[in-house]
Design a protein that fits this description.
- The chain contains 16 helices and 16 strands.
- β5 and β6 form a beta hairpin.
- The longest helix has 21 residues.
- The protein is globular and about 70 Å long.
- The site of (2R)-2-hydroxypentanedioic acid (2HG) has 8 residues, from β14 and β16.
């Protein structure tokens, strides 16, 4: 056991699994950002809520910082441990604890992967509708820590809308049972919502009660080719006016090129600068409306081609073109922006952002995609091979400052759904006022007076 402080922890909690091998420290000390060198003190894998509480009390007594850890698919450095922290991985706490058919809720331990929670809901004939590409690895706890969005927000909203209750071990080791799945509760501050998107800075979410809903209808997936960026929001309006959309996502030809480099077939004979994937019910009335929307867009010069899925397999192929983007560009260690504005502000912001990035990034390949129906854009800047990571990041940070200014003017957010973590910390002030940040700090001091919970994330 390398650090003597760990002896006490191992002695007090004989059932606790502790890992200190170099390979484990590297594995658990990083998330998908790959920008920081992992250097945790050790990895603790508790199996019970009581163990989590004891770990937090030990951390307070020994002045050890804690990094709560889920599937580590985060893209903002929220789960990075680079300064001798104790990583507390919830991966062993991954059980379904209960289902309530009357309340239509599923109670889970926070370490359960999103996909397993979705499958459990389906097993009861219902749906947990939060969904995103990293579903197989991302944990429910991590999705709560970032208020994850994903591909169904246009229809169902963010994670926040679906958390009926949660249990939080605060920075002092106290266990709070928040929300308790009540539909109505006007008894003061809703502390549950403070824990959502807190990125583990207030405590560790150990359990969640997920609200479930009716399963989605059978759906069709349509891929549209667009001639211009300006057409995007108008196509969205045309489809949204006629259909209840289950998803409305966009990507560029550059994104498609990277996905196809990893396999799959080009969807159209010709290439087009922009594409939209949209999903809607496959009943006859919806199909008629979808075709009418498509024809309207073709007639107005907003779309140049389109294909509709003829089978589930084809629907999956079309989705892969969108969902495969992050993985297909991962080898370029992209610098990621994840920004949002109100949907109404999107056309003006898009025009400004496009001109800004074309001006500022002539030397880099820029991959645009995202949840356009939610006003959420992902902008991945690819590091040229051979360029030093530090120089690349410095150049991108310079541009992010300019982008942050544009976001502020348009009333947007520097982090739509990935969280602030380490990556977006310098830009928090473009989204939140000084008074808001001061209030957040004061709240943290109440939940975590010794500052052991994920220090350095969100703000310093
Ligand atoms: C997505 O929408 C994820 O696929 C990842 O939020 C976005 O890699 C990204 O920038
Ligand atoms: Zn996304």
């Amino acid at each position: 056991m390398p650090d003597p402080r760990l002896h006490g922890l191992a002695r007090d909690l004989p059932q606790l699994r502790l890992k200190t091998d170099l390979a484990d420290l590297e594995h658990y000390g990083r998330d998908w950002t790959r920008r920081w060198t992992p250097a945790p003190l050790a990895i603790a894998l508790p199996g019970t809520v009581a163990e989590v509480q004891a770990i937090v009390r030990w951390a307070n007594a020994n002045s050890v910082a804690i990094v709560p850890s889920g599937g580590r698919t985060g893209l903002s450095g929220g789960a990075v441990a680079a300064h001798g922290e104790l990583v507390v991985s919830l991966e062993r706490m991954n059980r379904v604890l209960g289902f309530d058919a009357v309340d239509r809720t599923l109670t889970v331990e926070a370490g359960i992967p999103l996909q397993l929670a979705q499958e459990a809901a389906r097993g009861h004939g219902l749906q947990y509708p939060v969904d995103f590409a990293a579903r197989g690895s991302a944990s429910i706890g991590g999705s709560i820590a970032t208020n994850a969005g994903g591909i169904r927000v246009v229809r169902y909203g963010n994670t926040r809308e679906w958390i009926a209750g949660l249990k939080l071990v605060t920075g002092t080791g106290e266990l709070l049972d928040l929300g308790r799945a009540l539909v109505k509760d006007s008894s003061g501050y809703d502390l549950r919502h403070l824990a959502i998107a807190a990125e583990g800075t207030l405590g560790i979410v150990v359990e969640a009660t997920l609200r479930l809903t009716d399963p989605p209808p059978p759906t069709n997936v349509m891929l549209l080719a667009l001639p211009s960026f300006e057409a995007l929001m108008r196509v969205f309006e045309a489809f949204r006016a006629r259909l209840q959309l289950q998803a409305f996502e966009f990507f560029t030809d550059v994104a498609l090129k990277h996905v196809l480099a990893h396999g799959g077939q080009a969807p159209f004979a010709e290439t087009h600068p922009y594409y939209v994937v949209t999903e809607f019910a496959s009943d006859e009335a919806s199909e008629v409306e979808a075709l009418a929307a498509f024809e309207q867009c073709m007639g107005e010069g907003l779309a140049s081609d389109g294909v509709i899925s003829a089978s589930d397999a084809q629907a999956q192929q079309l989705w892969r073109l969108r969902e495969g983007i992050t993985e297909s560009v991962a080898r370029y260690v992209p610098y990621k922006n994840d920004v949002s504005v109100r949907i109404a502000a999107m056309p003006a912001f898009l025009a400004e952002a496009q001109a800004l990035l074309a001006r500022e990034y002539p030397q880099f390949e820029v991959v645009w995609f995202g949840h356009i129906g939610d006003g959420n854009l992902h902008i991945n800047i690819l590091k040229p091979d051979g360029m030093a990571q530090a120089d690349f990041v410095a150049d991108c940070e310079r541009v992010t400052k300019v982008l942050a200014g544009a976001l502020q003017r348009h009333g947007g957010s520097i982090s739509a759904e990935h969280g602030i973590g380490l990556v977006k910390k310098p830009y928090l002030g473009c989204t939140r006022s000084d008074a808001e940040i001061a209030a957040m700090r004061a709240i943290k001091a109440v939940f975590d007076p010794a500052g052991v919970m994920n220090p350095g994330k969100l703000f310093d």
